[in-house]
Amino acid sequence: MNTDRSYRNDISLALIHLIGKRGALSATEALLSILRDGRINGSGNNGYVKGSKTATCFTEMPLASVLTFVKNSKFSGHPYECYGIAISKQSGWDRGARPVIYLPDTEGNWIPEDQKWRHVRFEFDAVDFSHEREWRSEGDFSLVGIGFYVIVPDREQEELVRALLPEEAERHVLGFLHMNILSQFL
User: Fold this and answer.
1) pLDDT per residue as tens digits for the range 76-118
2) Are 182 and 63 in contact (CB under 8 A)?
3) Please, what is the end-to-end C-alpha distance for the chain in angstroms?
4) 1 in a structural domain
5) pTM for the complete prediction?
6) Distances (CA, A) of 95 to 43, 98, 159
7) Strands, E assignment, the chain
8) What is the CA 95 to chain-centroid distance, rounded?
9) Residue 7 resides in a domain
10) Per the domain annotation, does 100 fall within a domain?
11) How many domains are there within the chain?
């Protein structure tokens, strides 16, 4: 079986955790909180995560698709902004991240209770999140010990985040990805 993904333009070799406003925190503040804590907090079952466990959500969509997704996310009920964390897919896999299982709720009974966090509702022509190309990791996701990229809208936001970046996080940041630069090529 061919495992070379270099020819696939529909997926990325990275997993991206997108960020938007979270409660009273702006997207910038939420990003800084993740960098300060060294972890992405998992979402509970008060939203889209099923079962009793929390999960951290990622996407494997290409960066160009992420920009379009962010621009249209205001219609999904969970508006994202051009902020996020990108890790290698291998790092995510090694820490338990897995592709979600898209199924109607009525067909998900076979999924063990301790794996329900991987189930995403899918109803043909009614409920479809498959464009998100979602992966999830059970619980909170630790960034300690892995390199990652920080996604920001532009150089100004990079400078702001860099100025407030905790020293521990700085050692793991591989670089910054500016979404406004990407938008110039689309």
Assistant:
1) 656 788 899 999 999 999 999 999 999 998 998 999 999 999 9
2) yes
3) 33
4) no
5) 0.89
6) 17, 9, 30
7) 14-19, 39-40, 55-59, 83-88, 98-99, 101-103, 119-121, 134-138, 141-142, 148-152, 173-178
8) 14
9) no
10) yes
11) 1
Both tokens of 132, joined, read 């998100």
Q: Which domain holds residue 178?
A: 14-183
Contact at 8 Å (CB) between 57 and 65?
A: no
Q: Which two tokens stand for residue 15?
A: 């997993």
**Secondary structure (3-state) at 6:** coil
How far apart CA 139 and CA 21 sit, in angstroms, is: 20
Give just the sign of the alpha carbon dihedral 76, 61, 101, 54: negative
Query: Residue 183 — very low, low, confident or very high, per pLDDT cuts 50/70/90?
Result: low
pLDDT reported for residue 6 = 63
> What does the DSSP 8-state code read for residue 51?
S
CB 86 within 8 A of CB 173: no
Model confidence pLDDT, tens digit, residues 26-78? 999 999 999 999 999 998 766 678 888 999 999 998 887 888 788 777 656 56
Handedness of CA 22, 77, 16, 129 (dihedral sign): positive
CB 16 within 8 A of CB 132: no
Considering the domain boundaries, does residue 140 fall inside one?
A: yes
